[in-house]
Write a structure and sequence with these properties.
With 335 residues, chain A is of the alpha/beta class. Chain A has 10 helices and 15 strands. The radius of gyration of chain A is 18 Å and the shape is globular. The relative contact order of chain A is 0.20. Helices cover 76% and strands 0% of the residues of chain B. The chains are: A alpha/beta (335), B mainly alpha (159).
């Protein structure tokens, strides 16, 4: 019997895993944003002293993982598993990072929900007694994502107001079975939900139904509601998607408006001309692993529902007339 | 705020949910600043054309015949757009001008140089060589197809 399963999609940890350490590395534009001071390291430019943007992205992920371990005097040999992913085909940023860290590797693809997905699965490994320490991570890079999903960066195109800006950044979290720190108490795995949005320049609208579904299901599974949390924070809904999530959840009978925010909304200032806000695996990864954990540790929030939001976008599928499926994975962080 | 349930609605079918959600999205979606975009497309697109016309007059005045002056004008505009793309300026013009800087021949040059820059790290053959026309390709293909059709029509009716 699944004794740790709660309701339809949620797991409750018996020995909630501890967040031992975290690190976030971000690009220059993210550094100029409102959360710039929270990041551990900022890149001077998007190439990070590498020859290509792809190499720069994997270097960020590698450095973030090593930094998170170094902060608590761990080396790769101390870690049982590494769970990581990114947006690129064949998740090359994570694969090549794992080649370098030599930690047994579980590669993940959850689009921009990967940070939350890795935390949920890492917590399961620890609570299940399969690992004592795991490292979770995710990355994205503006230039690598643009060229794979959209256009060359120097092409003179007009971005619509719904478009979001892929965050250049990587974040990593070390989870352990014991120790001092914040804990992951629950995880809710999302269903793939698709209500027919097919505009690659409007990812917020594509993801909102899946994310709202995960939030509502989470409340039902734990037999609770929004009052259980000080903060509900999604990964990269942006301004447009955030409004939609709020309304969809309200239609199901939960009013989250006054405690709900989004990493993609927080990470850039409107003056930075990113239109609807930030996006990408790196968006929630850097905000979670710096600002968010910092604020929970500082006592500003005690119980946080963090929902990674992923648009499972494929340019090929879109060209073949498909719409964009979305997914949302949630974890509960408690002080 | 409309209160009817969408996600877990007991009454709506999958298609009805999609329709209800489309309505919600359309009510929430910020609209592009259409008048401003049209204005800048007109101004920048017009400006590029005026520069082209100026070049044509200049080259004609230097003694080139009409056809050669036209070719020299195109070459100059293409070179300028390629240079501005390389310098990272053209995409900023495009941000304001939209179709105003895509439709003229300078937009064609931008699409090729931007692709070349983007894929040069994948090598000269399968990078630059294969991807050079990634954006401009359709323009060429359907340009050629249209000219075949017109040639065919001309051949049949003017024989």
């Amino acid at each position: 019997m699944a004794t740790k399963k709660l309701g339809k999609q949620t797991v409750r940890f018996q020995n909630p895993p501890v967040i031992l350490s975290s690190a976030a590395i971000a690009g220059p534009k993210e550094g100029e944003g409102p959360l710039g001071l929270y990041f551990d390291q900022l890149l001077k430019d998007n190439l990070f002293e590498e020859e290509t943007w792809e190499k720069a992205e994997r270097k960020m992920l590698f450095e973030a993982i090593i930094l998170a371990m170094n902060k608590i005097d761990l080396v790769p040999e101390d870690i049982d598993f590494m769970l990581a992913g990114d947006l690129l085909n064949q998740i090359i940023s994570a694969n090549y990072t794992a080649r370098q860290t030599e930690i047994p590797f579980i590669g993940l693809y959850g689009a921009c929900s990967t940070m939350a997905e890795s935390l949920a699965l890492g917590s399961i490994l620890i609570d299940g007694g399969f690992a004592a320490k795991v490292v979770c991570g995710a990355s994205s890079h503006y230039n690598t994502a643009e060229r794979q999903y959209r256009f060359p960066t120097e092409l003179g195109v007009q971005r619509p107001p719904t478009a979001q800006w892929t965050v250049t950044g990587a974040g990593a979290t070390v989870l352990g079975e014991s120790g001092k720190g914040l804990r992951v108490s629950h995880a809710t795995f999302g269903k793939v939900v698709d209500l027919g949005i097919s505009d690659a320049n409007d990812m917020g609208s594509a993801m909102a139904p899946a994310v709202a579904d995960t939030i509502v299901t989470h409340f039902q599974d734990i037999g609770g509601n929004e009052t259980y949390y000080d903060l509900i924070i999604t990964g990269d809904m942006g301004n447009v998607g955030k409004g939609l999530v709020q309304q969809l959840v309200a239609k199901e009978g939960y009013n989250i408006a006054d405690k709900y925010t989004d990493c993609g909304v927080l990470v850039f200032d409107p003056a930075q001309d990113t239109h609807a806000g930030g996006s990408g695996c790196g968006c929630s990864a850097i905000v979670f692993n710096s600002y968010l954990l910092h604020e929970i540790l500082g006592g500003k929030f005690k119980k946080v529902l963090f929902i990674g939001s992923g648009a499972l976008l494929s340019p090929t599928a879109l060209q073949q007339g498909e719409s964009i499926p979305g997914i949302g994975h949630a974890v509960v962080i408690e002080a | 705020m409309a209160s009817e349930q969408i996600l877990n609605s007991p009454t709506l079918s999958k298609n009805d949910k999609k329709k209800a959600y489309f309505d919600l999205v359309n009510r929430n979606k910020p609209k592009p600043p259409l008048l401003r975009n049209i204005f800048w497309a007109f101004v920048i697109g017009g400006l590029i054309s005026v520069i082209g016309q100026g070049l044509l007059i200049l080259y004609s005045g230097q003694g080139l015949d009409e056809k050669s002056a036209g070719a020299a004008t195109s070459a100059t505009l293409v070179f300028a757009a390629a240079l501005l793309t390389g310098l990272g300026v053209y995409d900023n013009i495009g941000k304001f001008a939209g179709a105003g800087s895509i439709v003229p021949i300078t937009g064609f040059a931008n699409s090729m140089v931007a692709s070349a820059l983007e894929w040069k790290r994948e090598g000269m053959v399968f990078g630059v060589g294969a991807k050079l026309f990634a954006i401009a390709g359709p323009v060429l293909v359907y340009g050629f197809v249209t000219s075949w059709l017109i040639g065919l029509i001309a051949f049949i009716f003017k024989g």
